[in-house]
Design a protein that fits this description.
63% helix; two-stranded antiparallel ribbon; single chain; elongated; alpha+beta; 68 residues
C-alpha cells in the first residue's frame, strides 16, 4: 500500500488525500530511521546512567537530583 498525505485547507474546509511522491517517501523513511536512532541513543544513555548509579549505590532519583 502506498503511503498517503492528507492536506486540510482550513480556509475552505477542503481535504485532499494523495499518494506520496518517491521523494516524500524517502524523506519519510529517513525521518523514521533518524527518530529510531535517536530513541535508541536516549535509551542507551539511560541504561548507562542507571548502571553508574547502581555502581555508586544511588537510586535513579538520587542520581537525577545530583545531575539537575
Amino acid at each position: 500500500m502506498q503511503p498517503t498525505i492528507k492536506i486540510h485547507d482550513l480556509t475552505t474546509g477542503e481535504i485532499v488525500e494523495r499518494e506520496m511522491t518517491s521523494d516524500e517517501i524517502k524523506n519519510y523513511d529517513a525521518t523514521i530511521a533518524r527518530n529510531a536512532a535517536q530513541d535508541k541513543e536516549l535509551a542507551d544513555k539511560e541504561i548507562a546512567k542507571a548502571a553508574i548509579a547502581a555502581r555508586l549505590g544511588l537510586t535513579a532519583d538520587e542520581l537525577a537530583t545530583l545531575l539537575a
